[in-house]
Amino acid sequence: MLELSHVHKVYRVGAFGGGRLRAVRDVSLKVESGEVVSLIGESGSGKSTLGKMVLGLFKPTSGVISFDGTDITTIRGHAARKAYYRRVQGVFQDPFSSFNPIFKADRVFEMIRSSYFPGTSDADWRERVLKAVGTVRLDPENVLGKYPHQLSGGQLQRLLIARALLLDVDLLVADEVISMLDASTRIDVLNLLADLKERGMAILFVTHDLSLGNYVSDRSVILRKGAIAEMGPTARVFENPLHPYSRHLLSCVPQLHRTWAEVDAEMKANPPEDIDLPVAPDEESAPLLEAEKGHFVGIDQG
Ligand SMILES: Nc1ncnc2c1ncn2[C@@H]1O[C@H](COP(=O)(O)OP(=O)(O)OP(=O)(O)O)[C@@H](O)[C@H]1O
């Protein structure tokens, strides 16, 4: 469905755009339909840039992003772009910034109606909206006709997901969608993503939080300094992390149910196996080694 092939992004930075910042380096990955793939990395690792390129908000400096075989940078014209966004939508970290405070929150649905379904009758449209709102487990009574400030972050986030459902999207780019939600709403939104996956939607789940990646995704991609450090089935990446960076990240996840002594004893009994990583030929390429089936490890950039 979605395929990234040797994608690079270099931003121009500094006074007069004279500097260069390599934000994404040689990233190749696939997302199949109905699959949840997590892009995991610390701040500045390039995850949002990747998500934005998939959404067509930025163009890659080089490389190809294709959706069902079409290079998305070749999509030209209003009708073709509309057709793309009917199938690919994004939901971002801060739900409040996606709503205009002077309009009622469900205006976001009306915008979809006027753009994509202008001929739909009021009754049919209402039915569609009620169905989408129900799917994201919101009570229409509580959310429709309300202003953004009358709704919680979790409710707004779910309304944005409902908006994507009105379009029957095939791929949702979910960029840090739960970072700003409180703990009780987080789990609802995570479970909602699991429901969407059950319905066949693919999700590119962008997160800085390893444990969230582990919780929601079929496959995980760990990014470091814009390049893939490790990628594979989530269970393998988490049970058998191969890149020193992944191991370091995993060792930083607090394990609240275990004491330091237990963790140390286990590490001594089962020391992680070290593998030799050859050096990448230059700073632009970031080749991957397939260490086991479908489990890739990046050549260390130091
Ligand atoms: N529009 C831009 N212009 C210039 N540099 C940018 C731009 N957007 C991002 N960057 C830089 O590119 C690098 C990657 O940023 P990106 O936002 O993709 O990382 P991230 O992993 O999503 O981090 P965060 O979680 O903090 O958003 C960072 O060094 C960032 O400062």
TrEMBL record:
Keyword Transport: yes
GO molecular function: ATP binding; ATP hydrolysis activity
GO BP, sorted A to Z: peptide transport
Keyword 4Fe-4S: no
UniProt protein name: Peptide/nickel transport system ATP-binding protein
Domain of life per record: Bacteria
Boundaries of every ABC transporter domain copy: 2-250
SUPFAM superfamilies associated with the record: P-loop containing nucleoside triphosphate hydrolases
Record Pfam families: ABC_tran, oligo_HPY
Alphabetical UniProt keywords: ATP-binding, Nucleotide-binding, Transport
Organism: Nocardiopsis flavescens
